[in-house]
Design goal:
Blueprint: E1 2-3, E2 9-10, E3 15-20, E4 36-42, H1 50-58, E5 69-74, H2 80-97, H3 112-130
Antiparallel strand pairs: 1-2, 3-4, 4-5
Length: 137
């Protein structure tokens, strides 16, 4: 059982973990040991609440296929166990990220004093630059 929050969890049978050969350096074991993990999670067929499903499917994430299957490839570590933990942790973080509600931005206006200071600064700068020109006699 993968716990997302106090009330939401994913049963182990909904997550498919497949061991594959890892890319990159690994010495003599690289062609023998399947240490990378492919995690496949079908969002539509899961027991997650509908809010989670809809927000996950609405994400513009390259790891989510058109059919609604989330694929995470974990190959950061050299051992299969650590890669399995990493893949599950990344799944948990992705599901948790859709529940975070972003703050609504409140538009603010600059104060009268700040507007006045800005315009005075511009006019001073303009005067300094105009005095750099050639003088007519």
């Amino acid at each position: 059982m993968i716990c997302i929050s106090k009330y939401v969890s994913i049963p182990d049978d909904e997550v498919e973990l497949i061991a594959i050969r890892s890319q990159g350096a690994g010495g003599q074991n690289v062609n023998k040991v399947a240490s990378a993990i492919h995690l496949r999670f079908d969002i539509n067929a899961s027991t997650l609440p509908e809010i989670y499903k809809s927000k996950l499917l609405a994400l513009r994430d390259k790891r989510i296929s058109k059919e609604g299957v989330l694929i995470i490839k974990a190959q950061k570590f050299r051992t299969q166990e650590k890669n399995r933990e990493d893949a599950i942790q990344r799944l948990i973080e992705l599901v948790k990220s859709v529940t975070v509600v972003e703050k609504v931005r409140v538009a603010t206006k600059p104060t009268k004093g700040s507007q006045k200071r800005r315009l005075e600064g511009k006019s001073k700068r303009s005067q300094i630059k105009s005095l750099r020109g050639k003088l007519d006699y």
